[in-house]
Specification:
Largest sheet: 14 strands, antiparallel
Strand content: 35-45%
Distance between the termini: 91 Å
Mean pLDDT: 92
Structural class: mainly beta
Low-confidence stretches: none
């Protein structure tokens, strides 16, 4: 009989076997079937290797030598190139790279050279399509011009040549191509938060389908005739589960293809033949995966594979062009994966490798699906992993909450569940309301319920296991990443007596600062996020966000807490972790803090993961009285020391509330005149010369400020009317190609119109106060402030794309002698940046005697981090 002693557990499995660098993973077969590629360590990180299909792995050679683990790679359609994406230390500004596996190796790196096809610095590439009839082409999006709305490019793989196909002036979020590689559809989210499916015609977009902010719809693939498109949708009051329909782009008519035969869960995926474009299978993820084959030959192959790997699920991973030879994986809760080459014609399976082969499968624990009632009676699906060798009684419990939160946990091998079970914990993985896959009613039940009913769903899971006698109520911990990190913070803030320890991994502590700092390329999802969380621009919404933020309930936290953060996280910025650490430090509550300087939203480098896990298991083991691995290799121990932060050293950058910002007092008024600047715009490694003209005219009771600029995309004119004396903005007019904006300011509101491609939209924005030093006349206004060493002030600008005010802070940081074409000047050096810590710093050099901006340099986040440098000519 099992007993609840550590002696009954299997031997402690070294954490390196769970979280260390993989030895072999991510196998793919080239479309021509000649090669197998895979991921394996090289040059200190996970890189791509290649071998001939019939060769042993020992004959493989590396083809990349990237210093950061490669997150995703794939073959070009013609098998000539391996393509991969990579960012900079976790900032998620991914570029697309190409390498020729047969290329001549670089003598230093010992691999063929990799070419950056998109070369977007401070910006991100989005892959839309690799058309099979254009094997040297990628259709990609780049947000280097506008970080919120990527422009559409054709990229030639062999040369890296980029061709702009469409400048994204219509706020398109996704583009969809047909089977012949023709652009047919686009998707965007309108001002009401509706998702629109648009037909792309030669000269216009036509809306053919839509779903509300609380629904899902998206095209998958065009049918065999290349006329209709398969679409997933749960549109309509009569629909709850996501189903598959076929949509006619010409008429907008949709016909049902299939929904879950058991009426339980959403459609998860559909498999199509790349040879014939026919629908091969539909997949539904219930407690376990269910697959419904439409092709009898593939169905027979599935059954044959299941016989070879009883009890395991089969994943069809990659295939040759003729779809005869496949890489398949057989996996389960206690099997990370057995990867094989499957020859369909010969009905032959050739084993390749086992994922994390050194993990003793016999020591792993069984995971099972369970269900329990939440606080309001809603049934919550979950997975429970119990430690092997111990009776399911009075166990320490780790609640592992998934991220998203619009995602779900699934049956299978889960590294954290198996790791903690090996340490003696029961592990609960709840699919709380707001999780995907269980229909839109379950998903929408989470709207506005962060930290409330969603948190109840987690808490009642603990209550359920305690009531069953499985969990010891005094030895419960909660952890997770992203939303799971938020759930850990919310657990100890809102239910402080439930948990004995918590670990928050890249979790937001304030929902207000989270939403205020989301990446610009999430702009299409902003309305959806506001609908599902709360709108920070609405007074009631802001109140909800405050109430649901663990930071605002930090005074209730008494549970031992560990916080883990990536310094370059673009989603949950470092401020989120800093501010909760400071709040607890100031109350004298002990908190452990880890910050990896080379990571983003989650850790990619195995050494960072191992350091985090070493600290995490010691932390939980000490507070929940469970076993943990005490030893750590020297490099892991050294890395843990490097990323451990003393909470006493944590400081927040000052944050200015827009409501508290006034209008700075000027030392003088403007004077009429013209200033000419020679400028350089550096973007994505390319430099562009520009001529700027700034003119101040006396317009009676107002100053008229005009900025003119000639660019390769056409002329830009920005005009502002400023009050004499105060220099407060009263009007603004912008003309730039297809965009024209007219605004009037009354001090509390901005009203007017925005015209884009002939479509006029009304604009009405709450300002909360006057706008100063924004748009035309900004440099002249700044130059007449009472500048002196140590001078500081703050004022409001207007973010037109967000349609909200942006508090700015200005500081004189020193004096410099500056040489510009207009001469040599003794200047004050000023730094101006958003008060909330967002990107977008401008440095200005103002001549002390002339009180004129003789030079300025601006980082433009709205242009992907481009840098504009302007020097006075006359």
């Amino acid at each position: 009989m099992p007993t609840n002693t550590e002696a009954a557990l299997p031997p402690l499995i070294d954490r390196d076997l769970f979280f260390g660098e993989i030895q072999i993973g991510g196998a793919q077969i080239s479309p021509d079937g000649a090669y197998i590629s895979f991921l394996k360590p090289h040059a200190g990180a996970r890189n791509v290797w290649v071998k001939k299909t019939g060769e042993p792995f020992s004959a493989a050679k590396p083809v990349t030598a990237d210093p950061r683990p490669i997150p995703h790679y794939f073959w070009s359609r013609d098998s000539r190139f391996i393509l991969y994406v990579q960012d900079e230390n976790g900032d998620e500004n991914y570029n697309i790279y190409a390498v020729d596996p047969a290329g001549e190796p670089d003598p230093c790196k010992l691999v063929p050279p990799a070419r950056n096809l998109t070369n977007a610095k401070g910006a991100r590439a989005f892959i839309y399509s690799l058309p099979r009839n254009q094997p040297d082409t990628i259709y990609a999006g780049l947000n280097d011009r506008d970080p919120a709305w990527p422009d559409l490019y054709r990229v030639q793989i062999s040369t890296g040549e980029r061709t702009l196909l469409r400048q994204n002036a219509e706020h398109i979020a996704e583009w969809s191509f047909d089977n012949a590689g023709e652009l047919r559809l686009a998707m965007r989210v309108n001002d009401a938060g509706e998702t629109e499916v648009l037909r792309v015609d030669a000269d216009q977009f036509t809306r053919i389908y839509s779903c509300s902010v609380e629904e899902t719809c998206a095209p998958l693939k065009f049918d065999q005739a290349n006329k209709q498109v398969y679409l997933i949708t749960n549109q309509g009051t009569d629909a709850n589960l996501i189903r598959l329909v076929r949509l006619d782009p010409a008429s907008g008519a949709a016909e049902l293809v299939e929904e879950d035969p058991l009426k339980r869960v959403d459609l998860t995926d559909a498999i199509f033949s790349e040879q014939t474009d026919e629908l091969l299978a539909t997949i539904y993820e219930d407690d376990r995966e269910r697959i419904y084959w439409k092709d009898s030959a593939f169905e027979a192959d599935q059954r044959w594979l299941e016989e070879q790997f009883p009890g395991l699920e089969i994943d069809w991973l990659s295939h040759t062009r003729d779809e005869n030879t496949w890489i398949v994986s057989a996996h389960g809760d206690r099997e990370p994966g057995q990867v094989c080459v499957f020859d369909r014609k010969a009905k032959r399976v050739e084993p390749q490798y086992r994922v994390r082969e050194q993990i003793p499968r016999e020591a792993l624990a069984l995971s099972k699906s369970i269900r329990y009632q939440s606080s309001d009676g809603l049934e919550i699906p979950a997975y429970l992993t119990l430690p092997k060798g111990m009776e399911a009684k009075n166990l320490p419990l780790v609640v592992f909450a998934h991220g998203g939160p619009w995602a779900r946990d699934s049956w299978g091998y889960h590294v954290f569940a198996q790791f903690f079970a090996n340490r003696g914990y029961a592990v609960l993985q709840p699919n709380f309301r707001g999780s995907t896959g269980y229909g839109k009613k379950f998903l929408n039940a989470g709207n506005g319920e962060w930290g409330r009913k969603m948190q109840d769903d987690i808490t009642w899971g603990v209550t359920h296991l305690v009531a069953q006698g499985i969990a010891d109520p005094k030895r419960v911990a909660i952890t997770g990443g992203s939303y799971g990190g938020y759930a850990a913070l919310a657990g100890v803030a809102f239910t402080p007596d439930v948990y004995a320890a918590a670990v928050s991994i890249v979790g937001p502590s304030s929902l207000i600062t989270l939403l205020e700092s989301i990446p610009p390329y999430w702009e299409a999802e902003r309305k959806i996020m506001y609908a599902r969380i709360a709108d920070p621009d609405d007074s009631e919404g802001r109140k909800t966000l405050e109430e649901e933020s663990p930071l605002h309930a930090a005074a209730r936290i008494k549970t031992p807490l560990m916080v883990v953060q990536g310094a370059n996280d673009p989603r949950v910025k470092k401020r989120e972790s800093d501010q909760i650490v400071i709040a607890l430090r100031e109350r004298g509550i002990a908190v452990e803090y880890l910050v990896a300087p080379d990571e983003g939203h989650g850790f990619a480098h195995p050494i960072n993961n191992l350091a985090m896990i070493a600290a995490m298991e010691r932390f939980l083991g000490s507070h929940l009285r469970s076993r943990f691995q005490e030893s750590a290799p020297e490099d892991v121990a050294a890395r843990l020391k490097e990323i451990t932060v003393d909470p006493n050293t944590v400081k927040l950058a000052p944050k200015t509330d827009a409501a508290e910002v006034g209008v700075p007092q000027t030392a003088a008024d403007l004077t009429p005149g013209i200033s000419r600047y020679r400028a350089t715009l550096e973007i994505s490694g390319q430099k562009m010369s520009l001529d700027l003209i700034s003119e101040i005219q006396d317009a009676g009771g107002m100053w008229s400020a005009v900025n003119r600029m000639e660019t390769p995309m056409g002329p830009v004119a920005d005009t502002a009317k400023l009050e004499k004396g105060s220099l407060v903005a009263r009007e603004r007019h912008v003309a730039q190609g297809p965009v024209e904006i007219d605004l009037s300011y009354d001090g509390e509101r901005a009203t007017g119109t925005m015209m884009v491609n002939g479509q006029k939209k009304p604009v009405e924005i709450d300002l909360g106060g006057a706008i100063f030093a924004d748009s035309a006349g900004a440099m002249e206004s700044i130059a007449v402030l009472p500048l002196a060493d140590g001078y500081r002030t703050a004022f409001r600008n207007l973010n037109l794309s967000r349609q909200k005010t942006k508090p700015m802070q200005l500081a004189v940081t020193g004096s410099e002698r500056v040489d510009v074409p207009a001469g040599t000047f003794e200047t004050y050096r000023l730094e101006i940046e958003p008060a909330g810590g967002e990107p977008g710093k401008t440095t200005v050099w103002v001549a002390k005697t002339e009180r004129k901006a003789v030079k300025y340099q601006s980082v433009l986040p709205e242009m992907g981090g481009a840098v504009l440098t302007a020097e006075l000519v006359e």
